[in-house]
Amino acid sequence: MRSRTPKVLHPVAGRAMIDHVVAACREAGVDALSVVISPAQRAVAEHLAGRCELVYQPEPDGTGGALRQVPAAALGSGDVLVLSGDAPLVRAATVRRLLAEHREAGAAATLAVVQDPGRDDGRVIRAADGSLDRIVEARDATPAERQVTEFNVGLYCFDAPQLAEALKRLTTDNEAREQYLTQVFDFLRPARLVTLNDPAEAAGVNDRVQLAAAESHLRGRLLRALMLGGVTVTDPATTFVDAGVEVGQDTVLEPFTVLRGATVVGAGCRIGPHTEIRDSRVGDGARIEHSWLHGVEFGAGSDCGPYSKLRPGTRIAAGVHIGSFAELTRTTVGSGSRVPHMSYLGDTTVGEGVNIGAGSITANYDGRHKHPTVIEDGAFVGVSSMLVGPVRLGRGSRTGAGSVVTRDVPDGATVVGVPARVIRRQPEGELQGP
User: Fold this and answer.
1) Cα–Cα distance between 71 and 318 in angstroms, integer?
2) How confident is the model at residue 252 (pLDDT cuts 50, 70, 90)?
3) Helix H or strand E encompassing 130
4) Which ranges in 115-253 belong to alpha helices (H)?
5) What is the average pLDDT across 199-220?
6) φ and ψ of 276, to 5 deg
7) 349-372 pLDDT, tens digit each
8) Crossing angle for the helix pair 92-105 and 17-27, nearest 10 degrees?
9) What are the beta bridge partners of residue 111?
10) What percent of the chain has pLDDT over 70?
11) DSSP letters for 131-164
């Protein structure tokens, strides 16, 4: 990979590739899961901590050497599944199928195979009767064996007691001087062969080219599932959706839409074009275009953009309008309120039915600390107003254009100027707003 990041931590569709393998195992019903890693891969150990049993392989002496590190108690007395951590395209359904066929056959060992002329790894050499004769690694293959186009996938199921005995018999009599796991098939006979329906599931990742290919394939698989579930993807070639993202029926994803992380988009929305949403929840019927949302709760029927940025901690209620060139962070906006354009709200609580005039900002940072601003129901903030926190605008209050508000504004009052001063008070009982 030519990377400081361990290979299995490189992301594919928003998840580390090993997380896809772990997820496939869990979904397939695997309860006890061990991951064999190098002691030097502290980042991998930290990433998997608490989710799997970690087994360390002190020396890089091959796949067989890796499996030999797993304690006999962990192998148990039933069936043992073995997968590669760098094969992120394997499906849970495939793991279940392999296990089912292994048990149905009562085999000592079962392996997944694929017909793929483009591969160049462990070739499956069959006997005259079609059964498995041996598996030959690429560097050990003869010219005749290199013509074989059936390959070992690296997905296996074994009878645990027989596997434990076969592992004891592994040698390093090969070009790499490693203990090949595939050598156990010399001792576990007969072996069951299961041909994959989708050759792409057999793809491993060993460089950035293969990483991009895996990303493309998985992205296509995810988008296909969304479209079959009732989501319109206008241009799949320019739409990027991470694994785990949820999108509701009749939502439209326009070109250059990117949905990342733990994002949930409701039904009947229109997202994009040119929109990125990460770790956010979007309510039904929302409209977001040419905008960026991260860590946001975005209410049903609200709209945003173009060219707005909503940062973590922002909560938008139902029926809110966030216009163009607005930025909000750690801000709550009540239902029916409007932030039409070119405004900044930070550490702000906006009530219901509030209008924020164009070019208005909340000055929340004094150089050392962040300060809150509260704008209560029905307030009207005039264009280019500056609200210097901590400050509160009362219910139904108003600021004149260009006002700099440094003190709390009473309910129903109107303030103007620099610094803003009260020029009119609303008679009690006649406050504006909902």
Assistant:
1) 55
2) very high
3) none
4) 160-167, 208-228
5) 95
6) -120, 130
7) 999 999 999 999 999 999 999 999
8) 50
9) 156, 193
10) 98
11) SEEEEE-GGG--TTGGG--EEEEEEEEEEHHHHH
| Cis peptide bond upstream of 419, omega within 30 | yes
Report the distance separating Cα 53 and Cα 35, nearest Å: 6
* SS3 of the chain: helix, strand, coil, percent, to 5: 20, 30, 50
pLDDT in tens, 76-123: 889 999 999 999 999 999 999 999 999 999 999 999 999 888 777 889
pLDDT value of residue 427: 64
Query: Which secondary structure element, helix H or strand E, spans residue 18, and what is its range?
Result: helix 17-27
Q: What is the C-alpha to C-alpha distance for residues 334 and 242, in angstroms, rounded to an integer?
A: 30
Is residue 99 within a helix (H) or strand (E), and if so which, with residue range? helix 92-105
Q: 98 or 432: which carries more pLDDT confidence? A: 98
pLDDT-derived band at 139 (thresholds 50, 70, 90) equals confident
- Enter the tokens of residue 12: 């594919």
What is the residue whose two structure tokens read 């206008």?
234
Closest CA to 261 of 16, 6, 8, 3: 16
Which position among 274, 290, 341, 369 bears the catalytic label?
341
Which residue is listed with tokens 């009540």? 334
Beta strands in 171-243 (DSSP E): 191-195, 232-233, 240-241
Q: How far apart are CA 106 and CA 18, in angstroms?
A: 29
Which pLDDT does position 140 carry in this prediction? 86
Helix (H, G, I), strand (E, B) or coil at 427: coil
294 is catalytic: no
Q: How high is the mean pLDDT of the chain?
A: 94
Instruction: Provide the pLDDT for residue 428.
Output: 57
How far is the C-alpha of 360 from the C-alpha of 20, rounded, in Å? Answer: 45
Compute the average pLDDT of residues 414-427: 89
Under DSSP, is residue 110 helix (H, G, I), strand (E, B) or coil?
strand
Check if the beta carbon of residue 350 is closer than 8 Å to that of residue 333: yes
Is residue 143 packed enough to be buried (19+ CB in 10 Å), middle (13-18) or exposed (0-12)? exposed
User: What distance in Å separates the CA atoms of residue 227 and residue 129, rounded to the nearest whole number?
Assistant: 44
Q: Around Cβ 408, how many Cβ atoms within 10 Å? A: 13
Ramachandran area for residue 172 (φ above 0: left; ψ -120 to 50: alpha; else beta):
alpha
Q: How far is CA 143 from CA 90, 287, 396, in A?
A: 30, 60, 85
pTM of the full predicted structure? 0.92
Determine the Cα–Cα distance for residues 417 and 412; give it in Å rounded to an integer. 17
